[in-house]
Design brief:
The chain is of the alpha+beta class and about 325 residues long. The protein is built from six helices and eleven strands. It folds into two domains: about 170 residues, no CATH class; about 140 residues, Oxidoreductase, molybdopterin-binding domain (Sulfite Oxidase, Chain A, domain 2), CATH 3.90.420.10. The strands form two sheets. Strands 1, 4, 5, 8, 9 and 10 form a six-stranded mixed sheet that branches. A hairpin with a 2-residue loop joins strand 8 and strand 9. Helix 2 crosses helix 5 and helix 3 runs antiparallel to helix 4.
């Protein structure tokens, strides 16, 4: 394969892998499986192209240009990203408290800067000849080969008696045993020290502003729901959650979205139409929530990834902003 076509193919595979990786973080329902599969296939395509890219790198290093440093940094980060992705897929345990998924995501994010610099310094322009029949057949063969390799790897994982894995690629951790669920937070969040007797939930909606204590919430009619917490850290747990539906105490008829805010300042906004599906959980598996899992109260948002399940809920408010008026992923 010619050098420029190898570079174009690698660029396309990396763009697809990045885009589907971001999308895979967002999906929470089985309809998003295509995004996850495409992410895995694109990653394998990068591996399959590496022998040709290795030849290009060797030729380039002979010229001893300073610009190659950024390329080598990019190469290293991509290699770490792929290796960590494979380790996560194989359910490799954490090393020194760091999971394979954390390494995978961190390396991928860091790779964006040298990738952009590398493409800007050494652009490869698409030509009509790059879309001829031979190139198209090669691209199709690469995609098919990557797809077959992804499916074979998935089958080997199952045959090797791998643990339960969800369509998102997450591995089972602590289903029906909350004490075995990992305690994870988004980025800079930490587990706060909250005394249930001093905690109160503030609700601001069309009926005004009011405060509800744990006693008030426990006095309300409770419902139980079975829902899967699928964390972007690469694990999932199916639990039975009990608490009060948000629709029971939040009036959403005067707004477009409901904002759920944590004691830590972490917040997520939902369309008011989702009120019937959201649960403010006080218990899990028949016992009160632990501090690490959101006590005194946490949000349960079925069909959404874990970063939507706000823990240590302190405030619920309704406003007239559109639900999409927030970062796609929390910045805190």
């Amino acid at each position: 394969m010619a050098g420029r076509r190898t570079n174009l193919a690698l660029l396309a595979a990396l763009v697809v892998a990045t885009g589907t990786g971001v999308g895979a973080f967002a999906v929470g329902t089985v309809t998003g499986r295509t995004m996850v599969v495409a992410h895995g296939v694109a990653g394998i395509a990068v591996v399959l192209l590496s022998p040709w890219k290795q030849q290009i790198v060797r030729r380039g290093l002979r010229r001893r240009r300073r610009a190659h440093r950024a390329g080598l940094v990019l190469l290293g980060l991509v290699a770490v990203t792929v290796a960590a992705g494979v380790a996560h897929a194989a359910d490799a345990g954490p090393f020194a408290g760091v999971t394979a998924m954390q390494v995978h995501v961190t390396a991928a994010v860091l790779a964006v800067i040298p990738a952009a610099w590398h493409v800007a310094r050494r652009p490869v322009r698409l030509r009509l000849a790059d879309l001829d029949r031979r190139a198209t057949v090669r691209a199709a063969a690469l995609t098919l080969g990557a797809g077959v390799a992804w499916r074979a790897a998935d089958a080997l994982y199952v045959l090797g008696d791998g643990g339960p894995r969800r369509f998102t690629g997450s591995h089972e951790r602590g289903s029906d045993a909350p004490d075995r669920m990992p305690v994870t937070q988004w980025l800079s969040d930490v587990v706060p020290d909250l005394a249930p007797g001093q905690w109160a939930l503030e609700v601001a909606d069309a009926d005004g502003v009011r405060r509800l204590s744990v006693r008030d919430l426990r006095a309300a009619p409770s419902v139980t729901r079975r829902a899967v917490l699928d964390c972007t850290g690469g694990w999932f747990a199916a639990q039975t959650w009990s608490g009060v539906p948000l629709a029971a105490f939040v009036a959403g008829d005067a707004g477009r979205r409901v904002v759920v805010t944590s004691t830590t300042g972490y917040a997520r906004a939902f369309p008011v139409e989702a009120l019937d599906h959201l649960l403010l959980a006080l218990d899990v598996a028949g016992a009160p929530l632990s501090p690490g899992h959101g006590a005194p109260a946490r949000l349960v948002a079925p069909g959404r990834r874990g970063f939507w399940w706000v823990k240590w809920v302190r405030r619920i408010s309704v406003d007239d902003l559109p639900p999409w008026a927030q970062p796609p992923f929390p910045v805190q």
